[in-house]
User: Fold this.
Amino acid sequence: MFRELKDEQKKEVVFFFEGKKLTAFDGETIASALLRSGEIFFREAKKNNFRGPYCMIGICFECLVDVDQMQSLQSCQVIVKNNMKVKRHKNSDLSL
Amino acid sequence: MKSNKLYFDFLIIGGGIQGCSAGFFLSKRKQKVALIEKDVIGRHASGANAGGVRTLGRDASEIPLSIVSMDWWNEIETLLSIKNSFFKSRYIKVARNNDDVSKAQNRILDLNKKGFTHEKWIGKSELKHLLPKISNHCIGGISVEGDGWAYPWKIVRGLASKSLSQGLQIFEKTFAKTFVKEKDYWEVSTTAGKFYAQNILNCSGAWGGELAKILGEQELPIKSYAPMLAITDPQPKFLNSVIGILNAPLSLKQIDTGQLIIGGGIKGKASTENNETKINPYGLKNTIQNAISVFPHIDNVRIIRSWSGIEGYFPDDLPVIGPGSKEGVVHAFGFSAHGFQLGLAVGEALADMSMKMQTKIKLDAFSIRRFK
Amino acid sequence: MKDVFDIIVIGSGPAGLSTSLAANDLGLKVLVIDEQSQVGGQIYKSIGKNLDGKKNFLGKDYLKGQHLYERFISSGIEHWLETSVWQITENQEVCFKRNGLTGIIKSKFIVICGGAYERAMPITGWTLPGVMSVGAAQTLLKSSSVGADDCVFVGSGPLLYLTVYQYLKAGFKVKAVLDTSRLKQIIYSIPYFFPALINFNLLWQGLRWIRYISKHTKVHGRVKNISILGKEKVQGIEITLSNGGNLKIDTKNIFLHQGIVPNINLTMATGIKHHWSQFQYCWLPTLSLSGETSIKGIYVAGDNGGIGGVNTSITTGQIAALDIGKKLNKTTNFAKLFVYLKFLKDKSLRPFLDVLFKQDVNFLVPDNKNEIVCRCENVNKSEIENSIKLGISGPNQLKSYCRAGMGNCQGRLCGLTVQTMIALKQNRKLDEVGYYRLRPPVKPITLKELSSFEEYSPDEKQ
Assistant:
């Protein structure tokens, strides 16, 4: 379970993950904020098989989420903005 | 390297769909035939295209060949013992304005006069019924119900595999360097040794013009380009026809994974010397604008990969199919990015011509001598 | 298209910062582009935010980046952050995406400083949520002061030890470090030790980290048969110890590391010539002594051209800038020579480290035949082996048979594994087997973005 170091005093930003209200630090990536909140399932690789972030530097594409109108964003590359609505990225591949 | 003498009645140069199809028919007819390919089967245009299998939108001179080919396509999976490779699908070329409409309706009248009735006009409401997500400014289109699409590499390799089991010999990574005509056979020096064959079939695609010259033809006005394709990440199913646009480049289909394949003949740069192709973002930009204009809801869909093959184009957009000037040579190349669907009938015709039999269809329109 | 800049530098890690500073010092007009929201790349990630003294656990080397960072910020060099490059065309136009808009821009020269990323380590259970790379642990620590207690580190290499050191210094509890290095590597590295002594300070530092780590957590050396346990997420890890015994550790967070490799997706998609390095076990862009690629006008600097570490990244950046400067008549060859000598000194440490921590090829190929190799497309080891058995000619044919390499990451995670599997099964040399044919877009891009790019105009606000 991820946690932040206690001596940090940072401004907080509110966002939503799968409808649940969460907070992030100002300038924090979606992936980091979700991991800190205890979320580990980010994208659906196939039916009921979920993955989470692996590389955190935009290489692996396992941390994909949908944000507001945009699909399939790398959550480790996107900074949380106020009131963002984040959802798990579902795989539409019907052959799986 | 030890000199390797290999004797055949028929030697096919080129392992794309034309060559593999010719190999399929010749080996089916129990002929002694070999195929030489400088890279691997289906490496270039035949393996890197959008897989469109259409009779729609062709030049009238190609239609008879295309219809014969479609009959073969309808049996292809049984013939080659493969599955999940060819899918029947309606093809629609969409009209976006009145000019498109009148051009389309004139075309259909003209084709009807020539005896072709496969292309039908569909109006706005039928279009919207078939494609609920289509943009409202699409006001109709030309449709063919019995067309389809395929996974090109599965088809070409399926042809090659079946042919191998029928006795075709395939030599990949083998480059044919020189062709010398002896009395009644050709001596072909390759990187895998010397081959001897009575008949040469030039199916070498974008390299067809170079090979034709070596085989004694005049300089041909063939140019090579790289038709570009792009594929998106999977989307919920919304498209069960293959879509084109009248008078503008686009080919759009949704495959069984939910991914969209976007093509349409956008040309990138190609080099026949080193197999390199360059993706041209401007051409892609234009085609994608067309795709979004027809289906506005896909604008946030991501392209995850692009690729391209190397194809040969003639100025009149028609291939060369037919006998060469020298004895024992037949040609089939320069399909200008629409040879995939024709390949099955072309292979059969090549087998007919090399075996000195009557072809099903007259092929005068594709004569190599038409460029004088 | 007009050249808007003299040089476009892609990437703002040590190499990118160094290239742009050296070029700027010569009076050249430079643009730096970086995908991240801050300059610094991976090694100096978030350095701008971490100068308040609260992150001293990250170590002296990290804090050395402060100097480079401050020089860059005060230089006024134009830099676009949160900007990604999806293609470099054959006319050397850079296609970029910034603030949701796309554009295309040209410069006289391009220096690609895309750095490196970690090799995949496809051991049993590696796709379970809770398993991440050691670089991921570092990134979270640097950019958001986030870490996981009771975690386990597995693998081999300097970056592994540095990260464990930083974790412990930051106050996170590390349950165990499972080192996969083999004894023979220590023996093979001895000949390279003596030239490496020029960098004695770095070697000494490495020993200090190892001593500190041994005091604050359990280190098991030469472990084998690693298996990550759990069904939907990580529950633990099981290994065979060097003495043959079995060990099972409960944990929810595992960090893996087997060295890093140059990030060649942009360079390969641009058509730059590459060659295989058996020593570093990766593909490298083929570069002149000054870092120029097979395409005139395009250079590569830093780890993107071959793993060398921070100091080498800084010097190769300077060399590239000076070479370009000479071409634009702003400097002479003599300046370059001086920097080149420093480069040779920095480079002398690398062979020692490369051999000591040599990538164990066995970790690139899973033991378990049901283990996933291509994460994007869910292709496992046995599916790939079945395709290889059909007689495929290389990774590109393999792609069309079993879909490995066709997903979002364009082979970044599975490429070396697939290449290795083909070489082993078909008894072929690795460089002859080849790699995926990479094309733009280097990262996925929406239809709207791809269809709306305009030529960049400096007068218009972008």
Remarks:
- The interface with chain A takes residues 233-237, 256-259, 300-302 of chain B (CB under 8 Å).
- DSSP finds nine helices and 22 strands in chain B.
- The mean pLDDT of chain B is 95.
